[in-house]
Design brief:
Blueprint lengths: L2 E13 L3 E8 L10 E6 L5 E4 L8 E7 L6 H7 L6 E8 L11 E7 L3 H13 L5 E8 L8 H10 L3 E7 L3 H8 L6 E6 L2 H13 L7 E3 L2 H12 L9
Parallel strand pairs: 7-8, 7-10, 8-9, 10-11
Antiparallel strand pairs: 1-2, 1-6, 2-5, 3-4, 3-6
Helix pairs in contact: 4-5, 5-6
This protein binds flavin-adenine dinucleotide.
């Protein structure tokens, strides 16, 4: 059941001209699972969905917002939002959440700002003492977009089973193909722009990923791509 929550802006950190980290303090805690998202309303902007970057606990939620410069909620948050402003949150939404399903390897694959739910999932998996391998791949267009790199490097030092693999400018599946010999026993979380899925999903299937092992907020797209691959109408690029 999705409820509405009143909140105030507790912290705004703007960086790189197009991104901000926003902390909202809710009147009461919002129960959610790592990987879920909320619907946010600010000022007179149309509501938009944002993934929750932190793990559950307390009344604060952390959101990372990228301003696409189109004059919507992202632009409003980047240019006008101030500490103490009111906001409204509805949720939580989404089934792409952290669950230890006994698989020996969890592969998290993110494109751009799609990193946010996978950040929460990686942190929750480590906090729950998940004993298998946990591999995070993050593809971005430019070096400046890797703004969480030092955080993930620190996490890799803290948890021996966690590895972080950033990719700047190149297709993510090239590095996954190079690093991972066999994906047949892995759970694979995918989060990012739809265009990324069309090249990634067939490439992972060609590496023997289990068609039922994918988890994503865009599960319909994943299912459609798996179906096309199985029917032989979709092949990985370069084959
Ligand atoms: C599950 C999920 C999770 C997400 N998580 C994140 C996240 O963690 N971080 C993040 O940055 N983004 C995330 N997004 C994307 C986010 O929801 C917004 O789409 C994004 O921030 C752009 O919203 P915007 O209002 O800034 O810009 P736009 O959607 O481009 O809107 C710009 C302006 O155009 C108007 N407009 C838009 N569409 C139309 C239309 N069809 N007709 C007329 N006017 C229109 C809007 O009202 C607005 O005034 C997520 C999306 C989903 C689905």
């Amino acid at each position: 059941m999705n409820k509405s929550y009143r909140a105030v802006v507790a912290r705004v950190d703007r960086f790189h001209t197009d991104k901000l980290i926003l902390n909202l303090r809710l009147e009461v805690p919002l129960p959610f699972q790592p990987g879920q998202y909320i619907e946010l309303t600010l000022g007179t902007c149309d509501p938009r969905y944002y993934s929750i970057a932190n793990t559950p606990g307390g009344t604060d939620i952390e959101l990372h917002i990228k301003d696409n410069g189109n004059g919507g909620l992202g632009t409003y948050a980047m240019t006008k939002l101030q500490i103490g402003d009111s906001a409204s949150v509805r949720g939580p939404f989404g089934n792409c959440t952290w669950r230890d399903d006994g698989k020996p390897h969890q592969i998290l694959v993110a494109g751009g700002i799609g990193i946010i739910p996978l950040k929460a999932i990686a942190e929750a998996a480590i906090a729950s003492s998940y004993a298998g391998r946990l591999s995070l791949y993050w593809g971005v267009q430019q070096q400046a977009d890797l703004y969480l790199q030092s955080q993930f490097d620190a996490l890799a030092k803290q948890a021996a089973n966690f590895s972080f693999h950033p990719v700047v400018g190149d297709p993510l599946h090239d590095l996954i193909r190079k690093n991972e010999a066999d994906l047949s026993r892995a759970r694979i979380y995918i989060s990012g722009p739809p265009a990324m899925f069309a090249s990634l999903v067939p490439a992972l299937l060609a590496q023997h990923a289990d068609p039922a092992a994918f988890r994503s907020d865009n599960q319909d797209l994943v299912s459609a791509l798996v179906k096309e691959y199985m029917a032989g109408t979709l092949r990985p690029s370069g084959t």
